[in-house]
Design brief:
The chain is mostly helical. The protein has helices spanning 19-30, 37-42, 49-56, 62-65, 75-83, 91-102, 113-126, 130-135, 145-158, 160-177. Belongs to the NOP16 family.
Length: 178
């Protein structure tokens, strides 16, 4: 049987490369990136995952942190298990995580600018007549009256101030025309 093409090529040692640097570079590249900024700043590469998390006051194994209590367990056994805890060297990590979690969540609900313009056009020309909106030539997607009503309600729900301002401007235009 024939050998592979490069099988009998002699192996050469490259003296110009620093093997230690190559190894540390490979280890860093293989390690996953920690997304959480608080954990990344407090992380020590020389310690294990369990040791790092214990120093921060976090649990590596949730089953050991909060064990399932048996019905037969006495009250004294529960108190002694709670008293035995590890020393938290980096409490600021947990504090910053709690502070970040307590911040109010931003409302990201929105609709596209095109949809807003479409709805405003329909309301401007047809007011609340959804059947006429469905027959309009700007109804490119051939929405049914119910679909158009849903789009108007979405616009009203997600952008209430803008909707109110738009309706006020329509009333002003109507008063000026009269």
């Amino acid at each position: 049987m024939p050998k592979a093409k490069g099988a009998n090529k002699r192996k050469k040692f490259n003296y110009s490369t620093n093997r230690r640097k190559l190894k540390t570079k490979a280890v860093k590249a293989a390690a996953p990136r920690i997304e959480c900024a608080q954990l990344r700043n407090a992380w020590n590469e020389k310690k294990s995952v369990a040791q790092n998390l214990a120093e921060m006051g976090l649990a590596f194994d949730p089953n050991k942190a909060l064990p399932v209590l048996r019905k037969k367990a006495a009250a004294m056994e529960i108190e002694t298990s709670e008293a035995s805890g590890t020393l938290v060297k980096k409490p600021y990590v947990v504090d910053s995580l709690v502070a970040e979690a307590s911040l109010p969540e931003k409302k990201t609900h929105s609709i596209s600018r095109d949809m807003i313009e479409y709805v405003q056009y329909m309301i401007k020309h047809h007011r609340d007549n959804y059947k006429e909106m469905a027959k309009d030539e700007k109804n490119y997607y051939q929405d049914t009256p119910k679909q158009i009503r849903r789009k108007v309600e979405l616009y009203r729900r997600y952008h209430p101030q803008e909707y109110e301002a738009f309706m006020q401007s329509l009333k002003q235009q109507k008063m000026e025309l009269s």
